[in-house]
Amino acid sequence: MQMSESQILDGIRSGNRKYFxxxxxxCEDDPAKANHLISNLEKHTAHLIGITGSPxxxxxxxxxxxxxxxxxxxxxxxxxDPSSPFTGGALxxxxxxxxxxxxxxxxxxxxxxxxxxxxxxxxxxxxxxxxFETFGVDSVFIETVGVGQSDVEIANVADTVIVLLSxxxxxxxxxxxxxxxxxxxxxxxxxSDNPLSKGLFSKLKNILEMSKKDIPIFLTNSITGDGIDNxxxxxxxxxxxxxxxxxxxxxxxxxVVKHAQAILRKKIDRIFETINADRLNIExxxxxxxxxxxxxx
Length: 297
Ligand SMILES: Nc1nc2c(ncn2[C@@H]2O[C@H](COP(=O)(O)OP(=O)(O)O)[C@@H](O)[C@H]2O)c(=O)[nH]1
Ligand SMILES: [Mg+2]
Fold this sequence. Notes:
Helix 2 (about 15-30) runs antiparallel to helix 7 and helix 3 runs parallel beside helix 7. This protein has 14 helices and seven strands. By secondary structure, it is α/β, with parallel strands linked by helices. About 55% of the residues lie in helices and about 15% in strands. The protein has helices spanning about 5-15, 15-30, 30-40, 60-70, 95, 100, 125-135, 150-155, 170-180, 180-185, 195-210, 230-245, 245-275, 280-295, and strands at about 45-50, 75-80, 105-115, 140-145, 160-165, 185-190, 215-220. Residues about 85-95 have low confidence and may be disordered. It folds into three domains: about 1-40, no CATH class; about 45-245, P-loop containing nucleotide triphosphate hydrolases (Rossmann fold); about 245-295, no CATH class. The radius of gyration is 20 Å and the shape is globular. Magnesium ion (MG) binds next to helix 4.
């Protein structure tokens, strides 16, 4: 349906989900337009929470478990789906899994295709978080794909990064390799029903002590909800503290720079796609790219 700019703005101001859904679509299709619309709306600071960890550790399940205990909250959920290399379309798995909550009045769930963005997260994720802040949610949970660069990049988008581990695999080694250790604000060992989870807890505790990192570790069971209350409380306390001590404002300043960088990076990537390399060497390609970039800016 065709919606005018002022219809979308008025619709969002009056709390109409339909218009908010439209804004989220615009975030994905036309980030510049989305930024323009967002700049005309009032923003309410929400806690932006990234959840990262290998596929299968329980990222979607833990968000579900949190939703189960959050009837009194307005929450946004962004699932960054892996793109199919053949069609570019988003897979529907996460959307389906969270469907039991999808019709709830206070939860807003959205999948975004990662579209194989080179060198990090799609700028749309920044815009989508900003959009959620115009719609007055308390928190936004961002589930990463669980592989590669976007998982580390989530630290540029989120106020708090939860690194999720499970005792199923050799996760702790993988995590160290992938640099997830550096970005974790909170560690959660999920699948606490697995007897190996206690061993993983001690191992991680040792690693953190040796590297002098004071990062909390939680044990959860996303199926039964064990440990979830504790995690929710910790997230709330952390957000209040960040608001109070100014660290949130600091993070948000850096975030704006990263957002601008993501937008520019995407533009540059597009310019490189237009360069015909038939008759050009590397130096000429660079010159051609710089010329095109300067013309565009
Ligand atoms: N036993 C057990 N299984 C879990 C737990 N949390 C998630 N799972 C299962 O682990 C599988 C992967 O979960 P999912 O949330 O899709 O992981 P994601 O890929 O990280 O989003 C699913 O079959 C879940 O039912 C848990 O705490 N205990
Ligand atoms: Mg998932």
